[in-house]
Design a protein that fits this description.
Elements: H1 2-7, H2 18-27, H3 32-41, H4 45-52, H5 56-65, H6 70-91, H7 94-102, H8 119-133
Helix pairs in contact: 3-4, 3-6, 6-7, 6-8
Pfam family, one: Xre_MbcA_ParS_C
Domain Antitoxin Xre/MbcA/ParS-like toxin-binding: 87-135
GO molecular function: DNA binding
């Protein structure tokens, strides 16, 4: 549930259930979720838009009209937030986790956040985090 808190700018347990989160994602998260992710990782809005594969123009239109992100982009944003939470758990510190996510990683051949645009990339990042958590050299 902490991943949902990142997207809604509530770092504590929001008391949300998985069912209510699912419904919110289906209806579409507020466009501010993009800014919350960027702030959390120290990235620009454009960097986050690149990871969720939303064009800056589409984001601007939705922001100005008050429209939500929609199902596809909301799901992608939630996927990123889940990886952030996992990294925070593995490293035991939000700052260390966030630094790791935006720094080049030799095992991945890229900055971890850059791989979060696909499910395959998410699995690669999760695998490396698992290896770090259990002390496996990679």
């Amino acid at each position: 549930m902490r991943a949902y808190g990142i997207l809604t700018n509530r770092r504590s347990d929001t008391g949300a259930t998985i069912e209510s989160i699912t419904e919110h994602i289906k209806k579409g998260l507020n466009v501010m979720a993009v800014q919350h992710l960027g702030r959390c990782l120290g990235l620009s809005v454009n960097d986050v838009l690149g990871v969720i594969r939303m064009s800056p123009r589409a984001y601007a239109r939705r922001r100005h009209s008050g429209a939500s992100l929609g199902l596809l982009y909301s799901d992608r944003a939630y996927r990123i937030a889940r990886v952030i939470v996992l990294a925070e758990e593995v490293f035991g510190s939000g700052d260390i986790a966030h630094d790791w996510l935006v720094s080049y990683n030799r095992a991945l051949g890229a900055k971890p956040y850059e791989l979060l645009d696909t499910e395959v990339g998410v699995e690669r990042v999760r695998t490396v985090l698992g290896r770090i958590e259990f002390g496996v050299y990679s």
